[in-house]
Write a structure and sequence with these properties.
Distance between the termini: 29 Å
Structural class: alpha+beta
Number of strands: 4
Radius of gyration: 22 Å
Largest sheet: 4 strands, antiparallel
Order of helices and strands: EEEEHHHHHHHHHHHH
Strand order of the largest sheet: 1-2-3-4
């Protein structure tokens, strides 16, 4: 049984579920806590805080920068948690190619190479599945749909359906159930902290596993924002270049529109980040409506954790608490 305790404040601390563990990111520190052989392995690193006024902290720019930074840090944390899996659970040995790369690049460069490849592959797969495929389908539909707005709405609907279907299927995978339970433990722990309650297993257990500032909700927001951005930008392009509108239904037209929309993705991510950040700082009727779809969607991406998972969440959160109380407030 869970309860929704009234938030006493909003924290900027966020996390990510790992393999038998949780990563928490605080204002000054990152922590990765993994349960291995019944014990908690706690790894804490200092974050590189960007100076105030840096161009990388400017609105819109910071959204893209923080998105890529989160991908890199997340992959590193996943690799660290995977390395801590007991040997009897490891199913594969290092391949000859991996050993050759490690010998040529050195262990540190090899790790950077693997992380770079993983981040690039993950982003490319996400773009291909959730953006490129709907755009290609939309390109075929230009023969029957004359309205640019309707076409982008159809593309957006296809995009959201693919995303929801993908996450629902993933949530049914046996291997992912424990990861989603750790995701629930992460949310419950942050909820307990924001309610101003002592971080005990009993207090955390009573919290809801749904959180309005979840990364999954952020992805859903990006899907919705893309409809608006693509509709406005593509309509503007057709107005500026009327010759392009005359090519509607042709392969070249579809190719140009796909490339144009892909170039707009950084803007979509940036706007999504700013909206998520704004919603995280405010609590009113509008923000509750804005975050409602993401909250509902978390019923698929989080599961109820057991007490051992909650212990991991508590250890991870406590490890990143700022030295000065309040430094993590939004």
């Amino acid at each position: 049984m869970t309860e929704n305790n009234q938030e006493k404040f909003k924290t900027s601390i966020g996390g990510q579920a790992l393999i038998e563990g949780i990563m928490m990111r605080g204002p000054q520190k990152d922590a990765v806590v993994v349960r291995t052989n019944g014990e908690l392995d706690i790894s804490v690193t200092q974050r590189k805080v960007r100076p105030k006024g840096s161009v990388l902290t400017w609105p819109l720019i910071r959204g893209v920068v923080n998105f890529f930074d989160a991908q890199v840090v997340g992959v590193k944390a996943l690799m660290h948690s995977a390395d801590l899996v007991p040997e009897e659970e490891e199913s594969q040995e290092q391949s000859r190619f991996d050993k050759w790369l490690e010998e040529k690049l050195g262990n540190e460069k090899f790790q950077s190479f693997v992380i770079g490849c993983a981040v690039t592959l993950g982003i490319c797969m996400s773009i291909g599945l959730f953006f490129l495929i709907p755009m290609v389908i939309g390109g075929f539909l230009t023969r029957w749909i004359d309205s640019n707005l309707v076409l982008n709405l159809v593309e957006g609907l296809i995009r959201i359906l693919i995303f929801v279907g993908y996450m629902v299927l993933v949530s049914r995978m046996k291997e992912m159930r424990r990861v989603f339970s750790y995701h629930g433990a992460e949310h419950k722990t942050i909820r307990c902290y924001e309610a101003g309650l002592p971080l005990t297993v009993e207090n955390v257990r009573r919290q809801t596993r749904l959180h309005p500032r979840c990364g999954t909700s952020f992805l859903l927001v990006i899907m919705v924002i893309s409809i608006l951005v693509f509709s406005i930008a593509s309509s503007a392009l057709l107005s500026v270049v009327p010759q392009l509108a005359a090519m509607r239904g042709q392969f070249l037209y579809s190719l140009i529109m796909v490339v144009f929309k892909l170039l707009l993705l950084p803007l979509v991510v940036a706007l999504g980040y700013e909206m998520n950040r704004w919603a995280g700082r405010h609590d009113n009727a509008f923000t509750r409506v804005l975050t409602a779809p993401g909250m509902w969607f978390q019923n698929f991406t989080t599961n109820e954790p057991d007490d051992s998972m909650i212990e991991v969440g508590i250890a991870a959160l406590e490890a990143v608490l700022p030295e000065k109380e309040g430094d993590d407030r939004w």
